Every structure is written in structure tokens, then in C-alpha cells.
Amino acid sequence: MAKSQFIRTKPHLNIGTMGHVDHGKTTLTAAITKVLADRDPASNRYVAFEGIDRAPEEAARGITITIAHVEYETASRHYAHVDMPGHADYVKNMITGAAQVDGAILVVSAQDGSMPQTREHVLLAQRVGVPHLVVALNKSDAVDDPELLDLVELEVRELLSEYGFPGDEVPVVRVSALKALEGDPRWVASVVELLDAVDGYVPIPPRELGEPFLMPIENVLSISGRGTVVTGKVERGELRAGEPVEVVGLGPTLASVATGLETFGKVLESAQAGDNAAVLLRGVKRDQVERGQVLAAPGSVRPHASFKARMYALTAAEGGRHTPFEANYRPQFYFHTTDVSGGLDLGDRDLVLPGDTLDEVSVSLGKPVALEVGLGFAVREGNRTVAAGTVTELLD
After folding, report:
1. What are residue 390's DSSP bridge partners?
2. Of all helices (H) and strands (E), which one includes residue 384?
3. Is 26 a catalytic residue?
4. CB within 8 A of 139, min separation 6: which ones?
């Protein structure tokens, strides 16, 4: 069956749901698709709860581990929506997820209020540069006392202000995802109000279409008879079918040609900054490409294994370490969609305490990855984020 063409009629944005485990992110994602599909069935498809949590262990545990993408359209925009994992062990995926969104819906349960992970997610959103948040106060139907809702809203606004978001102006919308899924008119209207808030509050970011093409690789698939497909979110530039590309990082640079482009199963004429794209690569075997590499315009980006950075060590309250780390510390470094181990050279310092900011630290990575000055990264150890930083100078 021939695939339909993706027609660009509305500005495209990437948005995600984030928040504490069990606060209702996945239910809210399902409710959004249902409400929109009921209003405009031509452009929207309802994605049931089961369709978002795909891994068997997610269905069993009722938590989101991988990052699920759904698409939907409001009257004025086309959205790719990422349901980001809330479970502590899976914050690694959340880091790579958050780095791909133009805005996010922070889901907070009106019954529980702000939880430790809510704080960690707000901090991460601020660190990886999620520019705008809209808050969904979910399960509002279960709270009888309106004063309690006011209190939770105030608490969330204070938390956002604490981490540098404009807490006073962020839209906080009281919703019930479950009741909206059941079709309760009052709560269906609350989901519509939430989408209006996203449409109105999250601006369309400037897309760097004139820059060289760059797409961090999230997944690699093999299609028999066709070749290897890589998927990810285009960070900048534009790519058309038939143009040459390079796969950079984690090994020798590989040259190829993009023979086909798709988004959400529809054929793309050109993949542009902001798109979630699947790119078919000519002459590339499945084992030659992996998650964490980047697809780039030839010669535009190079792999590097050592660099200087500015870095901030998270405090224990922010989900970081309770104890300082020393000069021979070897954590994992997260860039784009990759994670690689590396060592820190602290210069003349012996210790870094939680809460410290290092203006200059040298990092040497175990494998070269595609790096540029200004690229943000997270530093993790075990299942916690211990620091966040920005590349300031490339050394090799």
C-alpha cells in the first residue's frame, strides 16, 4: 500500500508529559488524543492507554519505560507528543526525551502534590533547556476541597519559581484525565483548556533551517529488502531524499546517502529541524549504526573524546549525590541520545561538593562522540543525575 505524504500545513512542535510516577502522564496523553479525535477525527487518532505503554513490563507494572511518541493536531498546530518516563530508574530515558521537546506538560497529582521526582524533573527540565512548562493538576476530580487545590497549585508555582521558571505566569490547569477518557463533559472541557494553554503559552521556537543538518540517532531498524533506517528528532538544518549524510561518533565516521524519509508513517519531502524523522540509509548494515551516534551533513560535525566544560553538581535535594566526588571520578556522560563513560580532571581542586559550580573542568571520554561548543550534557552515576554541564572548548 502506498504511504500518504506528510503535508506541512501547520507549525510543528515537540511536546512531552513529565512528572512523578503514577501521577497520570500516560492517562493524560491518551485523554488528549481521545478528546482531539472526537473533535476532529480527520486529523487525529485516539491512542489508547495500552498503545502508549508498549513494553510488556510496562503493561504489567503500569509505568512508562521507553519513550512513546504520539502525534496530534490542534486547530493551529501539529504536535509530536512524547510520554516521558517518571520512574527513577528510567530518568536516563527522560534526559534524552527532555532534550527533544519545545515545551512540556508537567503532570502533578492534585491528591499528592509535588513529590521528590516532580522536583527532579523540574530541575532536569531547566538543566536540559526545556524552555516552557504548562502544569496539569491531574486527578482534580478526586479532591473535594477547592482550598486544597489552591494550596497544591501554590506549591507547584513556588517549585517552578525556585528553578528559574516564571512560576507566577505558568498556566496551571486543573484536569482529570480519567474522567475525560470516560467522556465526562466537564473534564473533557478541562483537557481542551489544557491544550489551549499549550497552544497559547508555548511559542514556536526558531528553527535553524539554514544550518548544516544534524539528527541524533534514537533507534536503528532493519527493513528487509530496503536497508537500515535510523530515527530521531532533527535538531537543525534540512535533509532531502538523495542527499549525502555521515554517521558520526562512537567509531569511524560512515558516509551514506538518505534514500527515503518518513514521519509517523507518512512520506516526508524534506526532514526539517524539529521533525521526528525516519531516514533510510543506502549501503549501511544494521550493525554499523547504533543509538547515540548522530546523522549529519558531511564534514559539519566531528567526533571528540576530550573537552572542557562548565559544570554544576546537583545537591542531594535535587536528586544528586550526598557526598563530594574526587579527581579520579568516572561517571557516565549523556549527550544527545548517547551515554559514554569518562573521567574528570578537576585541575587544582581535590573535591567537588554537591551544589558547587565548576567554571572549567576537563573531561576525557572513553569513546569519541559528536560534540560542539555549547552542547549541554548530564552526568550520571548509578541511577541518579549528579551533575549537568555545557561544553565550552574542544581539546582534540
Report:
1. 310, 376
2. strand 384-394
3. yes
4. 23, 24, 109, 110, 111, 176, 177, 178
Is 336 catalytic? The answer is: no
Candidates 17, 23, 26, 132; catalytic one = 26
- Give the separation between CA 358 and CA 352, rounded to whole angstroms: 8
pLDDT digits (tens, 9 = 90+) for 233-244: 888 899 998 999
Residue 148 forms beta bridges with which residues?
Answer: none
Among 129, 20, 116, smallest CA distance to 320 is for: 116
User: Active-site residue among 12, 23, 25, 132?
Assistant: 25
Whole-angstrom distance, CA of residue 329 vs CA of residue 340:
14
Whether the Cβ atoms of residue 388 and residue 338 lie closer than 8 Å to each other: no
Question: Is it the case that residue 113 has pLDDT exceeding 80?
Answer: yes
Cell of 53: 505503554
* Other beta carbons within 10 Å of 393: 11
Reply yes or no on whether 87 is catalytic: yes
Q: How far apart are CA 352 and CA 140, in angstroms?
A: 42
Higher confidence at residue 57 or residue 123?
123
Helical residues (DSSP H) of the chain, grouped into ranges: 25-39, 49-52, 56-61, 91-98, 116-127, 146-162, 177-181, 185-201
Supply 107's cell numbers: 503532570
- Helix 185-201 to helix 25-39 angle (10° resolution) is 90
> Cβ contacts of residue 121 below 8 Å, gap of 6+?
18, 19, 20, 86, 94, 106
Section 373-390 average pLDDT: 84
Q: Which position among 10, 22, 66, 92 bears the catalytic label?
A: 22
As a whole number, mean pLDDT of residues 153-171 equals 93
Is 23 annotated in the active site?
no
The answer to whether the pTM exceeds 0.70 is no
Q: Provide the grid cell at 105.
A: 506538560
CA angle (84 as vertex; 219, 364 as ends), nearest 5: 60
Q: What percent of the chain has pLDDT over 70?
A: 85
Catalytic residue among 87, 132, 179, 336: 87
Report the C-alpha dihedral over residues 268, 274, 280, 283, rounded to 10 degrees.
Answer: 140
